[in-house]
Amino acid sequence: MILYTLRRLAGVIGVLIAVAAVTFTIFYVLPSDPAAAACGKACSADRLAAIRSHMGLDEPLWRQFWDFLSGIFTGRTMGSGHYALHCGFPCLGYSYENSEAVWDLLMDRLPVSASLALGAAVLWLALGLSAGVAAALRKDTLTDRVLMVGAVGAASLPVYFTSMMLIYGLIRVAGLLPYPSYVPFTDDPARWASNLLLPWLALAILYAAMYARQSRSSMIETMAEPYIRTARAKGLPRRTVVVKHGLRSGMTPILTLFGMDLGGLLAGAVITESIFGLPGIGRLFYGALSTGDQPVILGVTLLAATFIVVANLAVDLLYAVVDPRVRL
Amino acid sequence: MHPSAPAPPAATAAAVPTSAVPSSPWRLARRELSRRTSVKISLAVVGLFLFMAAAAPLLSALAGWSPDDFDRTAVDPYLGGTPVGPLGGISAQHWLGVEPVTGRDLFARVVHGAQVSLLIALTATAIVVIAGTAAGIAAGYFGGRTDAVLSRVMDLTMSFPSLIFMIAMMSVAKDVNRIVLMTAVIGLFGWPGVARVVRGQTLSLRHREYVDAARVGGAGSWRILTRDVLPGVAGPVIAYTTLIVPGMIATEAALSYLGVGVRPPTPSWGQMIAESVSFYDTDPMYFVIPSACLFLTVLAFTLLGDALRDILDPRGSRT
């Protein structure tokens, strides 16, 4: 187990270096003028000169990559002389648009994105799994059909459509909820939840639909396995068989999916956050797209990749706990 | 199989004494498909949108408007440019109404948008399927080092946050053909899914008797792969292909929605939805029309894919 964990950790680091290399290529190698690209749309000559110095564009490419990579782990001083700028650990670059280090910008906004992702995850797991398992256990009945038609429909709705409909229905017409504005959990948990309810719903509907479809087919497959029949034949009540034998291995494919999805959302739900005006990483990213603030785009990309890779590792380690067939 | 499950569809289909010709698997599949109402409806919807996309210039000429024609008479300048008439200006002149402010014809824009959206989605799917099948067959059939390297590359590609990377790549590239770039970028992250399915299927086929027989008979790898293995993986691949199309359409729409996809004035559904969001209060139809197109296309492809998977993929959950 320890050996496996170590091996996986090494793999994770390998993947992250590959991700960093690809991001580096996208932002430093591909553009015809990387400094101008990083400078954004409103760019002054002085700032451009500073960025040229910070990015070290006159250095050889491997040197630039090394500085970029080592900066992440140790922090670095970007540029020299008049333009010198210290960027502390972990240095993901400096946003000239915001005059702030990218890491600080990201950490300011992480709580918002995390609140959104975690709340939505609870909701979609509850909705999706119960719908999926209920449909699987009542396969080919009316319940099953209704649930699955609903799931296919909901999975086809783009998140911006669901969001707009929720805003229109629940805020404009019914006036049930306030227009979301983020309140930190530590300030007022109740208002935190009531403000986030709508974005949670918007995200959860889409994911719940996908999870319902996935968990239904996975559960049906599991319930057809011989060991389930054996358990039933031993005289165990159906309930016990479903919960203890069926769910446990039926849910392993869901776990993989969940790791990927949650990891991806932690680094910002771009569309949902920008529609609801939540000041999370996703909206920072969206803003960066329109101003051409490339250091931020680069930082978010790296952060998202890290979250996903780490979430995958966590899931693989959890497998051993959840599924008795997987012994590491 | 579950005791209460109905008899396998293949058996019932074979029992129907309609043809004396021995049924090939493809004919069985076709017969099974044509029995389902959901398949007929979704085929009709897919056909309709494909027709709209293919005949976009023709259709908009028929309606009398090109997607970039401004019609100032169709919008009311005193009401902030909202369309004249009910339901976003739907009339005999403008079949689906007009865009607020500019008065561009929505029907023309929707059909041209269908062209762009479906062109990108289907081309990206083709890239994904061809690359994925090639990689999957090679990994599964040759095994050993080829498999190790290809599987590693698949894992690596899959651990990338694809949407974010797509956005990043699209936002860096400024002066390239957006449609080509977008197709390539979407395709780049999709192939490992297909490759995994194909690899698994190939692994189960590579030591079947008929494959071994071909090998003993002196057939080369290329011949075995194309004549013996490829037909065996075709079923799951076709099913999987139909199921990834909706994802591709949604991805294209999301990228265009975020403003990194195709650039105006080229219309695409995602971009139209993004523009319409700020008018959702004054002109809801402007928002509803492209959204409905997107929704219907995605839904139809999903239903079609579900049905194909049930029938063609023996390992996929047959329900």
Automatic annotation (TrEMBL), chain A:
Keyword Transmembrane: yes
Residue ranges of every copy of the ABC transmembrane type-1 domain listed in the record: 110-319
PANTHER family: DIPEPTIDE TRANSPORT SYSTEM PERMEASE PROTEIN DPPB-RELATED
Main location: membrane
Lineage of source species: Bacteria, Bacillati, Actinomycetota, Actinomycetes, Kitasatosporales
Gene3D superfamilies xrefs: MetI-like
Family: Belongs to the binding-protein-dependent transport system permease family.
Transmembrane segments: 9-30, 112-134, 146-171, 191-212, 254-276, 296-322
Name listed for the protein in its UniProt record: ABC transporter permease
Pfam families recorded: BPD_transp_1, BPD_transp_1_N
The keyword Magnesium is assigned to this record: no
Keyword terms of this UniProt record: Cell membrane, Membrane, Transmembrane, Transmembrane helix, Transport
UniProt-listed SUPFAM superfamilies: MetI-like
Compartments reported by the entry: Cell membrane
Membrane topology annotation: Multi-pass membrane protein
TrEMBL record, chain B:
Gene3D superfamilies registered for this protein in UniProt: MetI-like
Cited InterPro entries: BP-dependent_transpt_permease, MetI-like, MetI-like_sf, OppC_N
Key word Transmembrane helix present: yes
Domain ABC transmembrane type-1: 114-305
Name of one Pfam family that matches: OppC_N
Superkingdom of the source species: Bacteria
Keywords of the record: Cell membrane, Membrane, Transmembrane, Transmembrane helix, Transport
Localization terms from the record: Cell membrane
Keyword Nucleotide-binding: no
Membrane spanning residue stretches: 41-65, 116-141, 153-173, 179-198, 237-260, 285-308
Membrane topology: Multi-pass membrane protein
PROSITE patterns: ABC_TM1
Similarity comment text for this entry: Belongs to the binding-protein-dependent transport system permease family.
Protein name, entry field: Peptide ABC transporter permease
Lineage, broadest ranks: Bacteria, Bacillati, Actinomycetota, Actinomycetes, Kitasatosporales
